[in-house]
Amino acid sequence: MTTPSTSAAGVLSAPAAGAVRTRGDRLGTAVVASLVDDIVSGRLAAGDTLPTEAEIGDHFGVSRTVVRESIKLLQDKGLVLIHRGVGTVVRSSQSWDMIDEIVLSALVHNDESLVILDELVAVRAALEREMAITAAAVRTPDHLDAIRAALRAMERTAGDPAEFAQADAAFHDVVMTTSGNRLGRAIVTSIHDKARTTGRYHGTTSAEYTALTLDEHRALVAAIESGDRATAGSTMYDHITGSWARRRPLQIPSS
User: Fold this and answer.
1) What are the residue boundaries of the structural domains of the chain, listed by start?
2) I need a surface site. Which of 1, 110, 216, 232 has the fewest CB within 10 A?
3) Are the CB atoms for 32 and 74 separated by under 8 Å?
4) Which DSSP letter does residue 100 get?
5) Higher-confidence position of 189 and 254
6) Which helix (H) or strand (E) holds 81?
7) Span 106-117, mean pLDDT?
8) What is the CATH number of domain 113-247?
9) Mind listing the pLDDT tens digit for each residue in 39-60?
10) Same topology for domains 9-95 and 113-247, yes or no?
11) What are phi and psi of 22, to 5 degrees?
12) Distance between CA 146 and CA 154 in Å, rounded?
């Protein structure tokens, strides 16, 4: 077991203006989010001991009750381990609940190396491939009408990057809904929504990329229409991974 280090009070992020909630916010949402960010960013490293309840309370201007509840939530998310009589110790990333909304958001926003986004795309591609395979097998005339309508929406918005991105996400949602895989859809929606909040995920786009994206979606629609499960799966997977490869920002080596 890692030996707890000394308290790390000096590394806590400054509370954002208006971030600390009112006294009625018993779960200390803003406190949790700030501490999660400090841990995910590495300002509080694995093996570090969190500041004392009094130090955290003074830092955020909240009661010890709010601090205790916040730390308990951190433990529930796998970020810390409470050692009675010793302190609260930061755990390694292997223990984190990376699908948790707050943890995933912090991971994405601190992902300067793009490793998390690479992993996110890999998970999304694998899940959507399976759902495309199922969609090709179970699609009904109503499903096909919805998928074709989603493709037409993409074609109409091709000249507006923001609207096109929304139409693209809606198209994928229709395919996932067609598959009937509610859990897969929920996971993809969660991780994709977090990724879309950062400009690094959108990366570089162009008219050429948009045209290619439309062609890939048309090929997917054709495969689902024909009930070609193998082609639907491979087309979806190749589209998601290829699209990320095209727009992925170039990494700039640190000086």
Assistant:
1) 9-95, 113-247
2) 1
3) yes
4) S
5) 189
6) strand 80-83
7) 91
8) 1.20.120.530
9) 999 999 999 999 999 999 999 9
10) no
11) -70, 170
12) 13
